[in-house]
Design a protein that fits this description.
Radius of gyration: 32 Å
Helix content: 40-55%
Distance between the termini: 65 Å
Order of helices and strands: HHHHHEEH
Amino acid sequence: MNTPALPGLAPAPKRGPGRPKGSGNKRSGDLQRYVEAVYGGMTPGQQSAQIGLVTAAELRAQGGDIMAAMGLKALKLAQMLGCEGKEAWLLMQRERADLLPYIHQKRAPKEEAPEGEGSTHTILAIPMEAGTAAGDGSGAGEWDTPPDLLEYQQVIEAEANEVTEPKSPDDA
């Protein structure tokens, strides 16, 4: 059936076969629900956190000393597993390292400007001589440009044209 389009609204674009972009994978969702139901209602990430991280209660019990809380947790884990404290500490460290990408995502690498698209202007800082019109005469070697302005600054083309183009035919 062909429905008329409403005025002011474009018809929805036709999509190809398959699920819509951004929708969840049904099998992954099914597996997640199964794991949570069978294994104590916790995901593998939550179980890793329980092994590798100290809770607020464990931290309070050690007077806020994170290293003491982690050491005590490692000793308890070592007793439970029947291993040395060092091995339990390394297990906790591995669990924390596995969780790290999910908590602190990496930033995208900074893109550098392609060659030839760099700055077309250079700002120079010229030392002023004592007693000149630009200086206050308090000493030789003062810089007229503050250091924070010496960093690379992007030139906006519209602003550059405002400065360089005449305002009226009489100014030309």
